[in-house]
Amino acid sequence: MELPKVLETKAKIRFQDCDPFNHLNNAAYINYMINAREDQIEKHYNLDIFELAKTKGISWVVGSNQIAYLKPALLMEDVVIDSQLIHCTENQLHVEIRMWNHNKTELKAIMWSTFVHFNLLKQKRWNHDKQLMDLFLNIVQSVPAKNFEERVLHLKPQKV
Fold it and tell me: Using CA atoms, how far apart are residues 62 and 93, in angstroms rounded to an integer?
């Protein structure tokens, strides 16, 4: 069975995550997007990062995030968060995560995150084992952009 490359989750924007204008707080976008990705990879790839940390002493740490806020997500709004692995190396994962309105006609935010594979016991960067690399090479799907800014311009609604 072929694994899906783009994973999708629904979420509702909650009161405690909003600013006084009833917009999702800028920092909260990252939490919604990362939480969605964690749930997606466990559900679709049976990859429980917390179990790996507990049993094998390996995990991933965030190396960097780039995020563009295109449209506000509003209090109690239903959103769709989709994500995909866009590049991988022996010890890094590059993931794109997008937040949309409920029917995916309006892109609200896009984020690129770099995750560094890390050995918690040795406290250093660690290479992915063969099983993980096989998974990543099976699901990676690149995007048509050389950098984040180009990707944002490609996805951003054009003004007429």
Answer: 10
DSSP 121-158: TTTEE-PPPHHHHHHHHHH----S-SSHHHHHHHHSPP
Radius of gyration for the chain, computed over Cα atoms and rounded to the nearest angstrom: 16
pLDDT for the residue 159:
61
Q: How far apart are CA 4 and CA 43, in angstroms?
A: 11
Longest dimension (CA), the chain: 54
Q: Is 44 helix (H, G, I), strand (E, B) or coil?
A: helix
Cβ-contact 99, 88 below 8 angstroms:
no
Rounded to whole angstroms, how far apart are CA atoms 149 and 100? 19
Distances (CA, A) of 41 to 46, 87, 149, 157: 6, 16, 26, 29
DSSP state of 121: T
pLDDT tens, residue by residue, 104-146: 999 999 999 999 999 999 999 999 999 999 999 999 999 999 9
Burial of 158 (0-12, 13-18, 19+ CB in 10 A): exposed
Whole-model pTM above 0.85? yes
Q: Are 88 and 137 in contact (CB under 8 A)?
A: yes
